[in-house]
Amino acid sequence: MLRIKNLKCYYGRIMAIKGVSLSVRKGELISLIGANGAGKSTLLEAICGLLPGWKGEILFEDEPLAGLDPPSVVRRGISLVPEGRLIFPPLSVTDNLKLGAYTLYRRKRHKDVAADLEMIRDMFPILRERANQPAGTLSGGEQQMLAIGRALMARPRLLALDEPSMGLAPLMVEQILETLLTLRQQGLTILLVEQNAQAALKIADRGYVLETGKVVLQGPASELLTDSEVKRAYLGRD
Ligand code: ATP
């Protein structure tokens, strides 16, 4: 579904991604792990049209994404849940969700949008309970649910998430990752970027380890979880 070949990303003359190749097949949940500054966010930004001037190839459903702006990428079928959530605090929870359907995607069929809103509220009942409350009054975990819900409102075929566990309590992390598993079981393809390697690999089919802009390890998530190098560097145990 997504194929990245020899991707190179630059900030000025600094190369932040140094020739990365990776693939995500339809229906897979792929975790991309790596330390702070490894280039995980940069890679997602390149996919989503947020980073000009990258080199290499990014194909989504066999079509190149080069040169597309973020709304075009969303319309192609990729939604991003950005790092730090980036919800709109003064707007109500429901208006934040609707932004996902109308601002980037410009969906026309209001009945379908209403049905999706209900589906997302069933998935995250707190978003129904707090429907009219300013989004900024939600807890961090609730805001993360809102950010995921907003991304789903564009009906993506590929959902990309940038560190959804960041700053959340362990129980909330578990709940968010459970939701991702459910979405995958429903057939959604997911690319999950995480520093929380243990949690991300536990729910993934396959994983990639990124280090200073390069893929240093890849394979089935179960194998990475027991790999001695991954354990030493990312899981904090021998
Ligand atoms: P984090 O978990 O901290 O977000 P990351 O793995 O997502 O880390 P990136 O944010 O993609 O890493 O950063 C990759 C490299 O690019 C880092 O060395 C970073 O300092 C650099 N970088 C990121 N954004 C910029 C920018 N706007 N200008 C210059 N350098 C940048």
Automatic annotation (TrEMBL):
Residues 2-237 form the ABC transporter domain. Pfam families: ABC_tran (PF00005). The keyword Membrane does not apply. It comes from the Bacteria. GO terms for biological process: L-amino acid transport. Keywords: Amino-acid transport, ATP-binding, Nucleotide-binding, Transport. GO terms for molecular function: ATP binding; ATP hydrolysis activity; branched-chain amino acid transmembrane transporter activity. Coiled coil: none annotated. SUPFAM superfamilies: P-loop containing nucleoside triphosphate hydrolases. The keyword Nucleotide-binding applies. Belongs to the ABC transporter superfamily. This is ABC transporter ATP-binding protein.
